[in-house]
Write a structure and sequence with these properties.
Blueprint lengths: L24 H10 L6 E5 L8 E7 L2 E7 L5 E5 L14 E3 L3 E2 L6 E2 L5 E3 L20 E5 L2 E5 L7 H5 L3 H4 L8 E2 L4 E5 L3 H8 L5 H4 L1 H7 L4 E4 L3 E7 L8 H9 L13 E7 L3 E5 L4 E10 L2 E10 L5 H32 L14 H13 L16
Antiparallel strand pairs: 1-10, 2-3, 2-5, 3-4, 6-7, 7-8, 9-10, 11-18, 12-18, 13-14, 14-15, 15-16, 16-17, 17-18
Protein name: Aromatic ring-hydroxylating dioxygenase subunit alpha
GO molecular function: dioxygenase activity
Organism: Sphingomonas humi
Length: 384
């Protein structure tokens, strides 16, 4: 009987990514070509655009995309670009329109993307309006959240989250409503610096004393094919911090959740740059939107099920206070990492066996962009 040989282990599996990947413009361009333009990006929740004409937008890799609900109730996604001379049609994060009218030459589009009005149309003999509607963008509705994809090639959100559907279902995502507004925080960081930190468990006990008081040492991380899953259960010991202690005491029973999740903070990071923070009291999404090799916009908003209990309203406020502090701690920590990645003295350090998410991320990146295996940029990848 023939002996089946196991594939040889990759020696780089035990090593973190080289620093130049976190600042080199040519590597950022390679990431865009290899996978960034193909991965689904969240725009909003379906309940934010419940009425005909309601729309939301997303800026991603130099593209502006809008999702808008048509008169027929169908939500569609389009490039936010006029078909005449390329002008942007809509400005801002969202609103409601009767027609999408270009501010440059007043070409107008219906809410389903059809070109319906062209001033001085006699100037364009033989104009076929049916061929000049807004350019559609691939749209996916996953449990009420609307995702767009610029190019094919990546798994759908439904495929990525398939292993966790039973766990997510009780949270009733489809019924969520926004309880805040979209916030955009620009950071002088590579997007991977933020993504690494999101899935890093070892820094919790060191850099987040508040989370450590809430979870003890019980924060856990799992790495799956397309998703990192993290969780922490609130401990019974009262925190010494006023906001944390009040949250522990006031968090009401979320009767729609199984008992195992009523005091659990649950996190999912979808490859490569979208995350869901799922709490008993609310649900947040967070994106790490790459702008340049060393600039990223963090985009986030909170949602919740209708619940007028005073204790629930207070818990949501306390959740915000706690996480505002966590965000400030992370901002300081990852700024230091970005500085280190720029240093010629940095060499990739070892990855521990418990750093499963970082190991998974690095392995996937090396597969998608083979230059990630190199200790330094290829000679022909000049900066500037």
């Amino acid at each position: 009987m023939a002996t089946r040989l196991r594939p040889a282990a990759d020696p780089l599996d035990d090593v973190s990514l080289p620093g130049w990947l976190y600042w080199h413009p040519a590597f950022f361009a390679a990431e865009q070509k290899a996978f960034l333009r193909a991965v689904p990006q969240i725009v909003c929740h379906q309940n934010e655009i419940a009425e005909p004409g309601a729309w939301r937008s997303l800026e991603f890799l130099g593209e502006s995309i809008i999702v808008v609900r048509g008169d027929d109730g169908v939500v569609r996604a389009f490039a936010n670009v006029c078909r005449h001379r390329g002008s942007r049609l809509l400005d801002g994060n969202g609103g409601c329109v009767r027609l999408l009218t270009c501010p440059y030459h007043a070409w107008s589009y219906a809410r389903d993307g059809r070109l319906v009005a062209v001033p001085q149309s006699e100037d364009y003999p033989g104009l076929d309006r049916s061929r000049l509607g807004l350019k559609p963008v691939t749209l996916e509705n996953w449990r009420g959240f609307l995702f767009v994809t610029l190019e094919p090639g990546a798994p759908t959100v439904a495929d990525m989250m398939a292993p966790f559907e039973d766990e997510v279902a009780p949270y009733r995502f489809e019924e969520l409503s926004a309880i805040g507004r979209v916030t955009l925080r620009s950071r002088d960081l590579n997007w991977k610096t933020i993504a690494d930190n999101y899935s890093d468990a070892l820094h919790i006990a060191v850099g987040h004393p508040g989370l450590t008081r809430l979870f003890g040492r019980g924060y856990r991380v799992e790495a799956h094919e397309h998703v990192d899953r993290m969780e922490g259960d609130l401990v019974e010991r009262p925190s010494s911090n006023l906001s944390e202690r009040a949250y522990q005491q006031m968090l009401p029973e979320a009767g729609h959740l199984p008992s195992s999740h009523r005091r659990k903070w649950l996190y999912f990071k979808l490859w490569p740059n979208t995350a869901f923070d799922i709490y008993p009291d609310q649900v947040d999404f967070m994106q790490f939107l790459p702008v340049t090799a060393e600039q990223t916009v963090i985009r986030e908003i909170s949602y919740a099920l209708p619940d007028e209990r005073r204790t629930m309203r207070a818990s949501r406020y306390l959740n915000w206070r706690i996480n505002r502090r966590v965000n400030a701690e992370d901002t300081a920590l990852i700024g230091r990492v970005q500085q280190g990645m720029r240093s010629p003295s940095y060499e990739p350090g070892p990855l521990g066996r418990s750093e499963v998410a970082l190991r998974s991320f690095a392995k996937k990146l090396r597969r998608l962009v083979p230059e990630a295996r190199l200790p330094a940029p290829p000679a022909h990848w000049h900066v500037g």
